[in-house]
Amino acid sequence: QVQLVESGGGLVQAGGSLRLSCAASGLTFSSYTMGWFRQAPGKEREFVASFRWNGITDYADSVKGRFTISRDNAKNTVHLQMNSLNAEDTAVYCCAAKTRHAYEYDYWGQGTQVTVSS
Q1: Do the Cβ atoms of 50 and 97 come closer than 8 Å?
Q2: Rounded to an integer, what distance in angstroms lies between the CA atom of residue 6 and that of residue 94?
C-alpha cells in the first residue's frame, strides 16, 4: 500500500531553517503531484507547496521566497527547505500525493511537528 513518511521536523529559533523530507513507497512516484500542507493548533489545514508531476511548483503566498520544494524521483522523496522561519510557521507539516489528473490529494502522511520559538 501507499506510505508517506515525513521526517526532519523539530524545534528551531525564529530566523532559522529546517529541511523536511517525505519518503514515498507503494506508488509510481514520478506520476504523482507531491504536496506539503500544515496545520497549526486551532486552525484549518493549509496548503504550503506542491511539486507537480510535470515539474511545475506552486507555493502559498505566506511561504514564497522562504520555502523551496524539491523532489528526487529516483529516490521517491520530496523535500521542503524552510528558511527564515517565524512563529507563524509552527504547525504539523504533512506531505501528500495525488495522481496527475486528480483534484484532491489521495494519500497523506502522518506529519512532523515544526516548532519555531520566538
Answers
A1: no
A2: 7
For residue 23, the cross-strand partners are 5, 77
Rounded Cα distance between 118 and 58, Å, is 28
* Cβ neighbours around 46 below 10 Å, total: 13
Q: How many CB atoms lie within 10 A of CB 39?
A: 14
Read off φ and ψ for residue 90, nearest 5 degrees.
Answer: -65, 125
116: cell is 519555531
What pairs with residue 115 in β-bridges?
A: 11
Q: Sort strands 10-13 and 32-39 into parallel, antiparallel or unpaired.
A: unpaired
At 99, the pLDDT band (50, 70, 90 cuts) reads: very high
118 pLDDT band (50/70/90 cuts)?
confident
- The backbone torsions φ and ψ at residue 98, rounded to the nearest 5 degrees and listed phi first, read -140, 150
What is the three-class DSSP state of 110? coil
